[in-house]
Structure formats: structure tokens, C-alpha cells
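Morning F.,

Quick status update on the modeling queue. The single chain you submitted on Monday has been processed. Sequence for confirmation:
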Amino acid sequence: MTRPEPEHLKFERTFRMPGIEADRLFEALTEPRHVQVWLASGVRIEPKIGGPYAFWGPSVPFCPSEREATQRVTEVGERSIAFRWRWRALDSLVRLCAAPASGGAELRIVHEGTGRLVERERASVWFVTDFWRLACGNLHQYLRTGEPAIMPDFTDPHSGVLLSVVIEAPASRVFESLTEPGVMDRWISMKARVEPRVGGVYAYGWVMEDGHGRSEEVGPQRIRRMERDRLLVTDWHYSADGRVSEVEWRLEPLGESRTRLTLRHEGMRDEADNRAGYRGGWTSFLVELKIFLETGVVERTPV
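C-alpha cells below.
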């Protein structure tokens, strides 16, 4: 089988951190006692040129042990650090820069390199994007509360997607964020279409280009089951999976102002990288939904 050509990959994003001082943000990026809470259970950091900026563990895709964690510092500034990262077959450079911003701080991330994390075309950039969305969401949550939102486990290649997060918002508001197009478009969808009934249309408006002049609408299309403020089940379409799968959002009220939101995605193609991709993508969306409902801040990623 012919192996795909290496890709040139570039991820670039500025994440807002309201209410956080820039010096505190940079400290959380460079001191192991912080990093091992919001990013990875294994951490070795020496913020000097040639020193390690290594992190590994179940929450880092394709980097479960210290053996795979070869990241090395290439630059150090007043509130910036860069490191070389050989991540599977992706040879890359990451730059992190904390800076003051209106009402708080912001974190600028540039991750650029050549190679592939996975063989499927364009999927490597999705992995990188989801990784940094999740990492920065957990960093923001850690700086706000002292705990990350969700630390997924990527070490089981055959498990499905089952994720849960507690959101400081009533179930009615969480359900609205899943079913009201105007709210959905603020954190997940692109011109959402919703008919709130069993069998009704439910679409994010995501369009995927295949690089050959063809496109398809991906994601959910129809509601399969629904119970207001309690349950939403939809189908899930993505032709590369070769099948239609199912996504379930289950809401459990925890008093009047807190909700446990559990997401289950089953029936996708039984392939390790595919499942890891869905796990990373859904975790990053759950973290962003939590921060959006609790703070109003959201970092959307168009599909």
C-alpha cells in the first residue's frame, strides 16, 4: 500500500483568559506542578534552551509514556516558550505566548510542522486542533477553579466515546444550548437547523471538503429520541466511517443550578485512530460548552 505524502500542518489560535493575569498564565505553562494537573500526568519541564518541555500520559494522544515524550525547548522569552515536538510522524515546533489583554490575558499558540499523526487525509490537523482546544479549555478551567474540566483517556484504542462533565448551569439552559440554533451557532454549529421533535431535522451545517472538489454535509441529520431538559439522541453521518452512528446527550439535574452532561457516541468505525479522534473532538466540545455556559467565552472552530 502506498503511504500518503507528508502534510504541512499549521495550527494558530489565540485563546482568551478573562480575569487571569498574564504572569500567572505563563507560570501555569512552565511549572510542572501546574502542568501535571491541567495537561498531563507525566511532566518534565526545564525552561531553558535544550531543556525538556516533556509531557505524557493517558490524556495525551499517542504519547502514553515518557519514552514518547521527547519535546525539547528551543526558545524562552519573558512570557513565551517554544519547543520541538516529534509527535508520532509529525515533526513540529510549538510556540506558546502569554500576554496581557483587555480584562485578563490571552494565550497565543502556533503549532507548525511536517508529517502526519494519522494516515487519513486532513485528519492530522483535526487531532492537533482538538488537542489544543481541549488543553486550553482545561487550562482556563484550572486557572478559574483549581481543577481541569475533563481529562480523557486515550490509552484504550477500542473503547467507544463516553464522557461526562458537570456544568454550573440549570438543565434547561444546557438543553437550550443543544437545541436552539442561535445558541448552538455560538459554540458548535454553522447555521444550525433544528426541528425539535422525533424524526425532525437536526444539523450543525458542517460541510467537509475532500480535496477533490467534492463536499458533504457531516454530523447529525435527524433526531432519534428527545425528552426536554433530559435527553437528546441523534444519528451521526460521516462517509469515511462507512456507517451511520449514534450520539446521545443525557442531562442529569444536580439541584437547580448544576447539570451533569454525559455524551455517548457509539457505532463509529472500529479503528483505533478513528475512535481517538472522536474522543478528542467530543471532549474539546464538552469543555468549550462548559466554559461558554459558565463564562460566556468560547473559541469556535469551523468545520
